[in-house]
Write the structure tokens for this entry.
Amino acid sequence: MEAKETLKAHVAKLATLTDDQFDYFFSHFKKMSFKKGQAIITGGDVVDCEYFVISGCLKSFFINDDLKMYILQFAMPTWWASDYNALYSHAKATINVDCITDAEVLCLSGSDREKLCDEIHSAEHFFRWRTNKGYVAAQKRLLSFMNNDAKHRYEELLKLYPELYNIVPKNLIAAYLGVSRETLSRLYHT
């Protein structure tokens, strides 16, 4: 499916735009291609875009002072990624985003998003509901970390996103789950 049709189907799940409105909406996106391992956002960057994944897989992550990686999100097709704190507060990036695989994305600047929300009520509705769904997912993940052991978090991830295990290296899944690679290996074989 071409990028425009992928985005149109995604938007249609939450909002109704006429064909003319969608064409205008789509005109604000810039298609970009990245290679496996390529950085999209690096800590310290000025962030002015969010990225809608058309193909491939991205990861959003943080590296602490002890150089330990914490993965906040994997972004597969029809998912969005950015350093949202940096994007909305105009701060320097603290979250990194890079490509686990080759990826094609649609980039939307923060100013264009605001413009679209001001001009098309359905676009504002779409972005509001998309953001709400993101908050709910983040809250569920945080609660899972507080209430569940590593085995349960692993099983939950496998149930929700089985395709991740064919795309994402095991060391990155371990970083997402907050466990060592060795612990993940034990969970993977139980």
Notes: The radius of gyration is 17 Å. The beta strands are 30-34, 39-41, 49-55, 58-63, 69-75, 80-81, 96-99, 103-109. The first helix runs from residue 3 to 12. The chain has two domains: 1-126, 139-190.
